[in-house]
Amino acid sequence: MTATPHLNTEHPKHNLTGFIIFLCSESVIFLAFFSGFALLKTAALNWLPPGVEGLEWRTPLLNTVVLISSSGTIWLAERCMSKGNLMGFRAFWLLTMALGAYFLYGQALEWSGLQFGLTSGVFGGTFYLLTGFHGLHVATGVFLMGLMLVKSFIPQNYAGGEQGVQATSLFWHFVDVIWIILFVLIYVWQRS
Question: pTM (2 decimals)?
Fold first, then answer.
């Protein structure tokens, strides 16, 4: 009996299935963090650390606008890629990376001006856990965009499709949606 080798056939409509499953698992992690934050906040008698009246929201609001704008620029980059406009792709992709880097800078700026730390009660711990974990995702997204940008300089690299670009773009939109939820939870929903 002759064994026939298993042939791996490509399923073009399923190229991103594994990545979408990964994003679903990340969603579950963030959902657990969001739920924990909400439960702890509603149950705490003294939510904010002593001496802290509330959070400044101007810098995080600017960061929110920057991050939401970056979803637009990455979408434009993808459109350029799908039309074969490699220069347009690179320009919008680089702009998206710059917006992501600015978001990280804004977050570092905010953290440096806070009057509480990671060990400042439940609020301090959950604040830094949520914003830090999200910041890690933003940094990962900027890194992945850098890889895709470098790959765009390899001749004919995207001739067979741009699944890496699509996956990175999906990840970036995911990061943006997570930040909007975080912004509402942490900055908009301030209890007196």
Answer: 0.86
